[in-house]
Every structure is written in C-alpha cells, then in structure tokens.
Design brief:
Layout (H helix, E strand, L loop, with lengths): L2 E5 L2 E4 L4 E8 L6 E8 L6 E6 L8 E2 L7 E6 L4 E6 L8 E9 L16 E2 L3 E6 L1
Parallel strand pairs: 2-11
Antiparallel strand pairs: 1-3, 3-8, 4-5, 4-9, 5-6, 7-8, 9-10, 9-11
C-alpha cells in the first residue's frame, strides 16, 4: 500500500524560508515520478515542482516558484523535499506530495492533479507579511 506522509509546514514571514518533507513507503520509490502540488482556498490544485529519480536536470518548476523553491529527492531514504525561500503571501496554501509511476518529461505546470494516483494528506503553509 502506497503511503505518502508530508511534514514541515507551518507559518513563515514573507521573505523567509520553510522546508517541506515527504516520506514514501509501500512502493519502489525509485520508479516513481514525485511532485509537490499546492491548493489555496477557492483555487485549483496546481503543480509546484516535479522530479524524476535520476538527474536533477529533469526537475521542473512552476513559473511562480522558479528561482525560489528547490525540489530534492533522497532515493535511498524514500524522501522528497521542497526548500522554499523568499516566501510570498501568495505561497499560502495546503501543500501535497504526489507520486505517479514512470519517467516524465512533461513540465509540472502542464501536469494536472489527475495525472497522479497517490497523494499525501497535505501540510499547511501560511506566509504572513
């Protein structure tokens, strides 16, 4: 049974940093494409960053977070991270870890939530001015 468990959310000030973690279990982590999504109240769930299991050259980011957020994978420990810097109030949302099978070259902004079959429960991020 695939399980994804996020942690690390909370409150941060604009301009500050937060780090999210996701621990996967119940599947062969290296075979999965992993991603972070977020959903603000009244808005659709949107892809933030995605990562294949190989080189970081395949990682993609939404334009809204490019240069501020960094996704990272630790395949040995079935872990996924999202380092969020230069936070903005518009980054406030519930953040979700997601997984799908196979290798993916489609930029995360073009991958909808329906492309992913496995989700964590989410962790709230709130950015204040």
């Amino acid at each position: 049974q695939v399980q994804l468990v996020e942690s690390g959310g909370g409150s941060g000030q604009a301009g500050g940093s937060l780090r999210l973690s996701c621990k996967g279990s119940g599947y062969t982590y290296r075979r999965a494409y992993m991603a972070w999504f977020r959903q603000a109240p009244g808005k659709e769930r949107e892809g933030v960053a995605g990562a294949n299991s190989d080189s970081s050259e395949s990682y993609t980011y939404a334009d809204s977070v490019k240069g501020r957020f960094t996704i990272a994978r630790d395949n040995a420990n079935n872990a996924l991270y999202l380092e969020m810097n230069s936070l903005k109030p518009e980054d406030t949302a519930m953040y979700y870890c997601a997984a799908r099978w196979g290798y993916c070259l489609t930029p995360i902004e073009r991958l909808g939530a329906t492309a992913f079959g496995y989700w964590g429960q989410g962790t709230q991020v709130t950015v204040t001015v």
